């Protein structure tokens, strides 16, 4: 099953019994069973895989506070790291009650200690801008300076926006032609009939184009790779269109 509610489990059981009644005698599936499988089997299994993978890598933390159903403040902490590709997973949740920088820092450190993640591999913290979060970062930096001799990488309150904007301006200076080409080609084939005609003209099935916009520059690499994979066919199409225009 993919992207299905656990509430469909009982209906799925009936469907499976209808498909293979002799092979699935005694088989049952229901919402609570699915929940328990995820919470106590599948979830812990994959969490352990992530933790074993990240312990040898440098990582960043992302956290945010929100108000839960019980009207108490809750904090969710996520780990991001690079291991052949960008990875992320949920580290822990914490019910806060009162929110202070010391409490936030304590909960984060508890989560790192429980997961056995080395503090000296922490690169940066991604957060929003309230003063309590700024105070938390200062306290974390003080602790890191004492223990490892240097602070976190500082790109401001939300590093994603700043880094995205920096790369966007760099593209305008050094590589705007690639990003413009990726957009022009994608939107040219946004008409289904044009893409179908292009597929028919190719000897091998072309790779599907990747949508790209400047504010999502991380996709430029993928978009450029697809363009390169289809480059001969795209040049052939350009020559065909140019020839047709000249005849007119």
UniProtKB/TrEMBL annotation:
Source organism superkingdom: Eukaryota
PANTHER family, alphabetized: BED-TYPE DOMAIN-CONTAINING PROTEIN, HAT FAMILY DIMERISATION DOMAINCONTAINING PROTEIN-RELATED
Name of the protein in question: DUF4371 domain-containing protein
């Amino acid at each position: 099953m993919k992207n299905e509610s656990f509430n469909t489990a009982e209906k799925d059981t009936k469907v499976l019994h209808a498909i293979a009644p002799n092979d699935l005698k005694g088989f049952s599936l229901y919402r609570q069973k699915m929940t328990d499988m995820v919470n106590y089997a599948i979830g812990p299994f994959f969490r352990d895989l992530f933790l074993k993978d990240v312990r040898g890598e440098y990582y960043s933390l992302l956290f945010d506070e929100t108000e839960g159903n019980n009207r108490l403040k809750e904090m969710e902490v996520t780990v991001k790291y690079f291991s052949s590709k960008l990875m992320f997973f949920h580290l822990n949740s914490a019910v806060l009650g009162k929110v202070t920088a010391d409490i936030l820092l304590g909960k984060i450190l508890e989560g790192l200690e429980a997961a056995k993640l080395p503090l000296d591999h922490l690169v940066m913290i991604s957060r929003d801008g309230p003063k309590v979060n700024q105070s938390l970062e200062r306290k974390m930096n003080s602790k890191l300076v004492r223990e490892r001799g240097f602070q976190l990488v500082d790109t401001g309150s939300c590093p994603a926006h700043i880094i995205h904007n920096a790369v966007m301006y760099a593209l305008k200076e050094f590589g705007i032609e690639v990003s413009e080409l990726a957009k022009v080609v994608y939107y040219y084939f946004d008409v289904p009939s044009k893409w179908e005609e292009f597929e028919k003209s190719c000897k091998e099935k072309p790779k599907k184009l990747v949508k790209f916009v400047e504010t999502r520059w991380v996709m430029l690499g993928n978009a450029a790779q697809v363009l390169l994979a289809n480059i001969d066919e795209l040049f052939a199409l350009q020559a065909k269109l140019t020839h047709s225009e000249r005849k007119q």
